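anyone seen this seq b4? input:
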Amino acid sequence: MIDDHWPLFGLEVSTPSLRLRLPREHELGALADLAARGVHPPDERPFLTPWAEGTPEERARFVLLEHWDRLASWSPDDWRLGLGVFTTDGEPVGAIRLAARDFGVVREVTTYTWLGLEHQGRGLGTEARRGVLSLAFDHLAAASALSFVFPDNQASQGVSRSLGYRPDGTTRDARGDEVLVSDRLRLDAADWAEVREPGVTVTGLDACRGLLGAT
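predicted toks r here
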């Protein structure tokens, strides 16, 4: 079984209506199809890397290539855990990434989420983020979580505020010849303790701790 060699395939975060897990190949294809149908309206540019602005085929291939690249470049000191977001009956609705560098020392993570257009506006992004934050804080003993979001991305800003994130400055990045300013938002463990809710379970983690630098 591949799970014996790569136990992250056995890791699952369950929330009341979602299951977050590393996608198998057929599930990855379904996520690529979902991205091909669109992840934001054409008049919006919510991502620093404008991957979702290409053709349907380009969006689908980006999802595949990014997934494979994350696995191929994995290190316990520098990892990006890309989980598919599925309903309890297995329907793909998007993806969420939990990433860290030197987690065993710094104890800090970042998150990144996209949902298919047809699944937005239902609170699923908030629920998925709550799931990975529970994994980070409640099970991996993270000290803080960061999120980087454009000031005009009201949906993502709202999710972060509802989960207790606080302003933590700004960042400046280049996208081609354009300078982009993002709000840096921080959620510390003490603030998470004030907003955490029951209903999130994590299975299969013990076998993964070494891969996550969290032994």
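The radius of gyration is 16 Å. The helical segments are 2-5, 25-36, 56-72, 103-106, 124-140, 154-162, 189-195. kinda curious what u guys think
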